Amino acid sequence: MDRFVILSGCSGGGKSTLLEALRLHGHHVVEEPGRRIVMEELNSGGSALPWMDTAAFVRWAVDMSLADREAAAAFPGIVFFDRGLIDAASALEHLTGEPALMSYGQLHGYNKHVFLTPPWPEIYVGDRERRHDLSEAIAEYERLGVDYPALGYEIHILPKVGVADRADFVHSILGLS
User: Fold this and answer.
1) Which of 21, 32, 70, 175 could hold 82 in an S-S bridge, CB 3.0 to 4.6 Å?
2) Where would I find the NadR/Ttd14 AAA domain in this sequence (predicted)?
3) Are residues 7 and 110 in contact, defined by beta-carbon separation less than 8 angstroms?
4) Which residues form the domain of 55?
5) The whole model's pTM is what?
6) Strand segments (E) across the chain
7) What's the total number of domains in the chain?
């Protein structure tokens, strides 16, 4: 769907902060499925966590991303997704070898412009939900940098600047300035 825009890239690169700025600009936003799953599992004592049962975690992320897309169809205008179905499908395929990327990627499109946060060690912080280290985050970033273009998306690397300038960059690329 052309009005569904993905913010993806390296963990800890400022996606959530940018998403909040875009929300404050009046856009609808969808928070990252992985963070929501981790918080729910930690609060309930579940095991579908990336460091316990990665396959269950990634499959749930695919399901949640599909539900997010369905719910977002009711929102007017541009909707920004902090990660989403393509990220989850990429992780599933990487983990299991299942051909998830092409099957989900071809059936459920997003705007052709995808914004990637580059690795930014100066702001990377692990926390209760983000337990992987920067090297794992960079490996995922590199994988996504190949997977999105393979599906025909045009990636735009977000500059390492303040959040207002990043929001302006996104608006400019999308012609929303």
Assistant:
1) 32
2) 5-166
3) no
4) 4-174
5) 0.90
6) 4-9, 28-30, 79-82, 113-117, 154-157
7) 1
